[in-house]
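Appendix B: complex inputs.
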Amino acid sequence: MYAFDIERPETIAEAVAALGGEAQALGGGQTLIPTLKARLASPDKLVSLSSISEMQGIRLEGRDLWIGGATVHADVANDGTYAALSDLAAHIGDPAVRNRGTIGGSIANNDPAACYPAAALGSGATIVTNTREIAADDFFQGMFDTALNEEEIITAVKFPIPEVANYQKFVQPASRFALVGVFVAKYADGVRVAVTGASNEGVHRWSAAEDALSSNFSAGALDGLSVPSGNMIADLHGSPDYRAHLVKVMTGRAVAQAS
Amino acid sequence: MTNVTMTINGKAVSGEVEGNTLLSSFLRDDQRLTGTHIGCDTSQCGACLVHVNGRAVKSCTMFAAEADGAEVATIEGQANADGSLNVIQQAFQDHHGLQCGFCTPGMVMTTAALLKDNPKPTEAEVRAYLEGNICRCTGYHNIVKAIMAASGQDVSAIAAE
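Resulting structure:
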């Protein structure tokens, strides 16, 4: 690693004041620290968000589940209020990673194979920052790209709790990230389907499946659909056609198991 | 340089660290607690696993400065007060849950974390919990057996395949 300083602010305001220049926010570090070790990033200062109590915790706010941006995966896994979300969190990484990695860090990084972006997009979540609230539909802008500005911190994520939902992850056997993951959530006003791991565009919605499932919420509703493979990721773990096929299979499984 | 203070295995310690000093480096190089092993240094293998404020974490993927004020538990604090092996360590010995021993500190600390939350895990739960601990010798069967035994369960039916 290159040399850098670490600050541990205790409020959002202090954290924002500490950012700027070549400073970088540090969530749980489960992606950023390996990145620093590989010298793929060279901040002159890390601003650790893990001591900010106003960014911790999980609570109901009206119909939304509010999750502080610095909340670790293990706490979301143990919460259970939004069962599909807790189940997703319980299968990120391994137990030690889940004790450090945070929801804000995952969503800010927007890894194209990460799980949380699928939950946020699939739930129509709201990303809360120190300056504004951003709809998930506007937040995720492509692989590792988001609507976040420099010096903007995800302070919380608000999830509308659906009638039923499920996340199905086809695990890439080496990294254990999603080779393809599909989050399906059924709300009173329709069904949302978000796909991670599959596309060069990063996390995205499968609108044809949403339309079909909104009128008939059953795996059979997907029968006539096919997923275009044109923008799917090609690597040694799977071809674009294979990933496109998996999107439909995993969507069907998610619908069948939604609860 | 920053001064950090933490409790390690019940003892208050302090030291000077750089911003990029990993907790694993602080434990090994500064505190000379070399029982915490560095296997992969990429948060895959779990040999560096310790407890921070009661939670299992990979000490190679946390900065020492982030542990300022924390309670840290390492393998050096696991034995009984008289120096004899604790229940988990003894089960690993009894059931041949190690060969070269390099992964074992992490395996023992992971087991302690598991059994604290789930005192009687099923075999499937044990295997799932070991996702972040890699052993290149044993093939895991005897590790699973040792963990089941450490939880006080009958392991006679678990075959050493």
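Chain A touches chain B at residues 1-6, 8, 29-30, 33-34, 36-37, 45-46, 48, 50, 74, 93-97, 99-100, 176 (CB under 8 Å).
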